[in-house]
Amino acid sequence: MALKKKNSPLLFLVVLVVLILLFIFRSKPMEPSVNQILGITGSAYYVSPNGDDSKAGTSTSTAWRTLDKAASAPLNPGDGILFERGGTWTGRLTLSRSGTSGANIYLGAYGSGNAPIFRNPGGTWNHAVELRGDYITVEDIKVVDTLEACLSIEIGADYNTVKHVEAEHCGQAILVRGTHNLLTANHLHDGVMVVNTPGGDDDFGSNGIVIRSSDNEASYNRIERCRVPSYDYGFDGGAFEFYSTQSTPSQLDNNYIHHNYVEGCDGFLEVGGKNPKTAKNNILAHNISYNNKKFGGIHNGTSTGGFSVDVKNLKIENNTIVETASDAKHIFWIWSPATAETISFNNNIVVSGVKFGDSNQVGKITHSNNLIQMLNGAKNPLSGEKSGDPQFTNIDSRDFSLKSGSPATGLGANLHYRDTGLGGNPAPTTPPSSTPTPTPTPTPTPTSTPTPTPSNSPSSAPSATPSQNPSPANLDLNADGKVNYLDLDLVLGRYRRHDSELDINKDGIINSLDAVLILKNI
Length: 522
Description:
By secondary structure, the chain is mainly beta. It has seven helices and 40 strands. Among the domains are: about 150-400, Single-stranded right-handed beta-helix, Pectin lyase-like (Pectate Lyase C-like); about 470-520, Dockerin domain (Type 1 dockerin domain, Orthogonal Bundle), CATH 1.10.1330. Helices cover about 10% and strands about 30% of the residues. Helix 6 (about 485-495) packs antiparallel against helix 7 (about 510-520).
């Protein structure tokens, strides 16, 4: 029987849809799985508070339960181990296996909700997460309530990446003993002491990132409130510390600290050690330090006593340093007077209500092209530097961008590894080739607001009229010239966060709607 004419348009439509679908799937590769997007190209293992160690662990329905089982996973390069969001594990997770360049082992999260929590309270020298292998990526976890280190990278553990990690109530949030490691876009806050005993000279703790080795990089981190009472020193803590211990002496050279925001800590940087070693060719660039009681505590010297370390060529460049707290003492404290070879201080903006430092300590450092505003009659011992109000947009709301006409604009000089001036946008910096490019986040320079934004507080109210159809240019989040799965990776890595830069549709939170907008344009 011939097909009735009135049905032919329906048949035509069905055939047309089938042909379109065939064309799409023949001309475009299949979308990668979530694990592939996370960087897992091999096997994935799953751990859940409701899991069972007797099962296979290779799917969410056969997830393991304990840290011991997770630590025994037969991880090969490209494999990953994922912990269920919303879960909490107590004890130490040690990862000893290594990935390779281009095929990291991955530790992260699956599911929805808050990041999985790792904690290991009760012992002075406890660690919650410990890396003993190379080429491991740690992402989207939270570490808490652990004294010596919430997350440690041990001696011989090199080329690892720690990103999008939150650390709270840690003696040292991240402790680094290996080399060539990248710590980027982490939120480290509210530190606690490791040792705090009456008398003596042994208290320490409440640190954000402690580096006891060379050739590491820390970028785009937000570190806050790492300052607590100490029997020995009144207060102790700090955001960054380069420190060589008696038991594990090491050089502290060639570390790169850039684009970080630090507030309410007991100093931005402390450099010292128990064994006479060197701290040479370290760089602090494009950071914002706001009300940290001081910027640098430098135990410069070569003696065998105290905390001396031989500091040479410490480059402090293109930073914004603001110290208005009435109980602060100085911007710099230096044990043995600095020389022209000790510190190079260039292209910085300083606003301070306390003295810059004793003239016999800082008077001989190399310096140029800084703008320094000393408040409350404080004196600046750096001769020849320009004085004046940098004219921040709104210091009370932490907006350190410069108003039009700021005396800092155009003042800075072109430096050895970037091309920028005070108030200028920094040229893109390239991380060590051994580590993946860090997740792009807003840049805390003198021309931008301090970022990255903590995961628990949105940086601004959502737009009243969210854009549902952003242009492809706005979807190229990593600025590589195209919209692809790398951009989708950035969104998934900050899922359920309040990050205005990655909230594509401006509805106040990063979610599946943002991911869909990228997928539609790949």
